[in-house]
Specification:
It comes from Paenibacillus beijingensis. It contains 19 helices and six strands. It is mainly alpha-helical. About 40% of the residues are buried. The structure holds arginine (ARG).
Length: about 450
C-alpha cells in the first residue's frame, strides 16, 4: 500500500526505517482522542464552508465506523502507516473512498498529535484527582479509628516525641492534598487547544480555532502556532506531578514496610495485599509497597527522559518529540496501579495499637516535656535540657525509663522537680500538650480531620 505522503518519493521506505520510525505500536492508545479531535475539526471545516456539508457527513460517519472497529479490536493497525493518525486516515479512506482524504484539510499531524495528547492527559488528570481522593478517604478513615492511638514520632528514625497515629496518617492526607491541587492547577495549562497551528505556521484555510476549542471543551487556544506544536511542557508538568505523587507513595510504602517488620509490628497489611515466599513458609511479604517504592524510579526516569528530549530541540516540531509518549503512558499505568491498590490496602490495614503503646512506654520521647516542665519553673531552657540529658543518661545506665524514677531520683538532678511530673510524663499528656494549630493534640487532630473531610466533600 502506498504512503499517504508518498508523492515526492521514488523509493520504498527501508523496512527497518519503517519499524524504527513508527509509533503505532504505542500511540494506538490515542485512538479515541484522535477521532474526537477529527470529528471537531471536520465539523468546523463544514461550518466554515471549507468542505461541503455532505462530505462532512460522510467523513463523520466513516470516522464513527472506524472508531467502532478500533473499539472492537477489529481494525488491524499497520506499521507502514506509521502512527495512529495515518492509520485512522487510511482506514477512513478505505471505508468512504477518496473523500476521506479531505479530512486533513487545514491540519497537520503536528497540531493533531498535540491535540490528542491534550485530550488524553485532560482525562487522566480527572481520573487521578479521583484516585487521590479515594486514597485520602482511606487515610482519613484510619485516622478516625486511631484518634487515641499513640505511637512514637521519629526524627532521624530515632524516637523523638510521641504523636497520635492519626496525626501521622493525616500528614499524608496533606501531602496527597497538595498533589491533588497541583494536578487541578495543571488542568488550566492542559486544557488549551493546539489544533489550527498547522505544521507550524498556521493554515491558509479560513478555519475557526475557537469553534473547535468550544466543541472539544478547551478553555483556550494556543496563542502562537509554533509554540502550539512544540510545547510538551504540559506533559513534563504531568510527569513531575506524577513523580511527586510517587515520592509520597514511596515514603508511605517505606513506612508500611518498616512498620510491618517483626522489629516494629505496628501494622499488619491484609493478606490480600501480601505475598508469600516460595521457600520460607513463615513469610508474608509487603510486595505492594515494595513495588510502589521500586516503581517510583521509572516514573522519575520518564520525567528526566522527556526533559532531556526537549532540552535542545529547535522550534518547531521534531521527530524527537514522538518520544514523549511511551514514558507518559508508562507513568499513567504505573500511577494507576499504585493508587488503585493503595486506598484499599490502607483501608484494610490492621493497626497494632498495643504494640505501638508498648513502644511509647519504652522510650524517652517524653524528655522534651519534662524539660519544658522545668522551664515552667523558671529554669532557662538550655539548662533544663542539660538537666534532662543527665537524667536520661542515668536512666540508660540504670536500665529504666523516666516514669520509673522515684521523685528522690529526679531530685538528684534538680530541686525543681515535684510529683506533678508523673502526670506531665504520661504519653496522653505529652500528646495533648501540643495543642497548637497543626499539632498532635487530639483536639487539633480531630479538627484537622474535620477540615480534610469538608475539603473532600466540597471538591
Ligand atoms: N507520530 C508523530 C508523533 O508522535 C506524529 C507527528 C508526526 N509529524 C511529523 N511531521 N512527522 O510525534
Amino acid at each position: 500500500m502506498s504512503k499517504l505522503w508518498g508523492g515526492r518519493f521514488t523509493k520504498k521506505t527501508d523496512q527497518l526505517v519503517e519499524e524504527y520510525t513508527a509509533s503505532i505500536l504505542f500511540d494506538k492508545e490515542l485512538a479515541e482522542e484522535d477521532v474526537q479531535g477529527s470529528l471537531a475539526h471536520v465539523t468546523m471545516l463544514g461550518k466554515q464552508g471549507i468542505l461541503p456539508a455532505e462530505d462532512v457527513e460522510t467523513i463523520k460517519g466513516g470516522l464513527q465506523r472506524v472508531l467502532e472497529r478500533i473499539r472492537k479490536g477489529e481494525l488491524e493497525f499497520s506499521v507502514s502507516d506509521e502512527d495512529i493518525h495515518m492509520n485512522i486516515e487510511k482506514a477512513l479512506i478505505d471505508d468512504i473512498g477518496p473523500v476521506g482524504g479531505k479530512l486533513h484539510t487545514g491540519r497537520s499531524r503536528n497540531d493533531q498529535v498535540a491535540t490528542d495528547m491534550h485530550l488524553y492527559l485532560r482525562k487522566r488528570v480527572v481520573e487521578f484527582v479521583g484516585l487521590l481522593q479515594k486514597l485520602q478517604e482511606a487515610l482519613i478513615g484510619q485516622a478516625k479509628a486511631n484518634l487515641d492511638t499513640i505511637v512514637p514520632g521519629y526524627t532521624h528514625l530515632q524516637r523523638a516525641q510521641p504523636i497520635l497515629f492519626a496525626h501521622h496518617l493525616m500528614a499524608y492526607v496533606s501531602m496527597f492534598g497538595r498533589d491533588l491541587e497541583r494536578l487541578q492547577d495543571s488542568y488550566k495549562r492542559i486544557n488549551v487547544l493546539p489544533l489550527g497551528a498547522g505544521a507550524l505556521a498556521g493554515t491558509t484555510f479560513p478555519i475557526d480555532r475557537h469553534f473547535v476549542a468550544e466543541q472539544l471543551g478547551f478553555d483556550r487556544v494556543y496563542e502562537n502556532s509554533l509554540d502550539a506544536v512544540s510545547d510538551r511542557d504540559f506533559i513534563v508538568e504531568f510527569l513531575a506531578n506524577a513523580s511527586l505523587i510517587m515520592t509520597h507513595l514511596s515514603r508511605l510504602s517505606e513506612e508500611l514496610i518498616l512498620w510491618s517488620s517483626t522489629e516494629f509490628r505496628f501494622v499488619e497489611l491484609d493478606d490480600a495485599f501480601c505475598t508469600g515466599s516460595s521457600i520460607m513458609p513463615q513469610k508474608k511479604n509487603p510486595d505492594v509497597p515494595e513495588l510502589v517504592r521500586g516503581k517510583t524510579g521509572r516514573v522519575y526516569g520518564n520525567l528526566v527522559g522527556l526533559l532531556t528530549v526537549l532540552k535542545s530541540l529547535p522550534l518547531a516540531y521534531n521527530k524527537d518529540m514522538q518520544e514523549d509518549k511511551e514514558g507518559m503512558f508508562d507513568t499513567v499505568r504505573t500511577l494507576q496501579g499504585a493508587l488503585q491498590l493503595f486506598a484499599p490496602m490502607i483501608a484494610t490495614m490492621k493497626v497494632n495499637k498495643e504494640q505501638m503503646r508498648k513502644a511509647v512506654n519504652q522510650d524517652f520521647s517524653n524528655a522534651t516535656d519534662i524539660a519544658d516542665f522545668l522551664v515552667g519553673k523558671g529554669l532557662p531552657f538550655r539548662q533544663a535540657h542539660e538537666v534532662i540529658g543527665k537524667t536520661v543518661l542515668y536512666c540508660i545506665q540504670q536500665d529504666k525509663y523516666l516514669l520509673d524514677l522515684t521523685l528522690d531520683e529526679f531530685k538528684q538532678f534538680s530541686e525543681l522537680f515535684d510529683d506533678r511530673i508523673y502526670a506531665v510524663l504520661q504519653p496522653e499528656a505529652v500528646v495533648d500538650a501540643r495543642n497548637v494549630y497543626g499539632g498532635t493534640a487530639k483536639k487539633q487532630v480531630s479538627e484537622a480531620i474535620g477540615r480534610a473531610e469538608s475539603a473532600l466533600a466540597s471538591a
